[in-house]
Amino acid sequence: MASGVKPRVKSPSSASAGEVVTIKTLISHPMESGQRKDSDGNTIPRSIINRFTCELNDNMIIDVTLEPAISTNPYFEFEAKVDASGEFKFTWYDDDGSVYEEAKAIEVA
Amino acid sequence: MKAKLLQSIAAAALAFGAGAALADEDAELVINGEIEIVTKTDAPAHMDGMSTIMSGWRFRDSTTQMMEMDDFDNPAMLAVEDAREKWSTPVGSEDKSCADCHGEPEDMAGVKPVYPKWNEDAGEVRTMQMQMNDCRENRMGAEPWKYDAADALAMEALLSSVSRGMPVDVAIDGPGQSTWEQGKELYYARTGQLDLSCASCHEENYGNMIRADHLSQGQINGFPTYRLKNTKLNGVHSRFKGCVRDTRAETYSPGSPEFVALEMYVASRGNGLSVEGPAVRN
Asked: Which spans are transmembrane here (chain A) (predicted)?
């Protein structure tokens, strides 16, 4: 079970219709690869975020499969075209079954 | 290990493919679009060997530089966030928090630029971490933090972050002068099997390549520094230790009087640059 996991999102709160906005996300997570051994020689079990998605008004914008080679605190920056006001929904899926969620509203002026 | 290898292969591929992101020594650093950072200025009067001082930021490639320009992109800010919580959490037998005496972290703006500095009561030059531990032991009744360990560095990073943009201003005269002179001596003393002093690289050869990397001037205005190579905050003394080790010498320990003196001297070589920490470096 990973501790200290905290999702963060930076996205604009308003945009004009049809605008392409940049979204930055980061989740603090150790991303233990499962390849390392501790000082006693035992394998440290894999514990990573294995999937990340972002939806806007139930439309999938990005759906990422994460692999063990991805570093601590995975950071994603991507763009989305915004046609109408709504809510970005961000979801991170942990190996241990935890699901972390975050939402950000965006208003189309 | 595998991840590391993949990364370096990717980096090599990029280097050949796109002409690489080379060090941009003319870039200007503005953090969050509002904090203007002086990364290049005239050397302070006490330095004979150099006329211009430059932050290590100028020696990094543009992708690393960019990570420091927005707090969201700066991985060190995660530690700063943690430290902010610790700041207002009471600890120790006195059940006091930092906030009880010092108020908001922002009230400590202006503290970082003058450290290390002489402490009259203690009769010694102190680094921020020494002063923090003095608080913990004597005012809070808590265990001191290990020097340059994660807790101490995070707090130092928080206190540095609220002073960003302010000019480094370490006093080199007065009662701390003998410590400063000891630091200067250490800076110019050649050590180790490779017979190198700090100046051999950081004064005589900055800007040149050391293997695959640019040598900086060894400025510490950006410390504590988040390094991409070990994905955590790094303290000044640990950095010194790494450098001394690379000369193949026996190193001093983080928190030792020698490194305190060296930190004071090296910090004063950056007088005039802005406090930049927590910075991002490779």
From this structure: none
